Amino acid sequence: MSNIQKQIIVLILLLYGLVGCTPGLYTRMDSTAPTFGPLYMGMTRQDAERHVGIPIFKIPVDKTHYKNIYEYEEERGALYTASTDIADILSLGLTSLMISPIDRFNGKRHLIAVVFEIRDSYAENDRITRILDKI
After folding, report:
1. CA distances from 60 to 69, 116, 133 (A)
2. Single pTM value for the model
């Protein structure tokens, strides 16, 4: 294999590596996207946060209750992901610089308020008493 061929292979691998690092296209492992299932009354805070991630706000309601506000992102379909990947590869990663801000502001993100009852000194044991999805 010639030196030029090796350089081309290294360049291609670097480009694919950069494309794989584009932000905002895939749901992260710690994402707030509710991919594990719905929330329900009586669910512990620890289980709820596995579904919707960490809260963006915590608001005290009274001495025994508090409200957490969560933000989650709607999951994208396979066609959207595939078309974005192809455009990203063809543009050497520049597509994500345009698409990520557009996705952020086009209504794909949702807020939900969850009221928890304080059970003990461990917040993860607190239980859901109300779910407000229209906030």
Report:
1. 11, 10, 18
2. 0.51
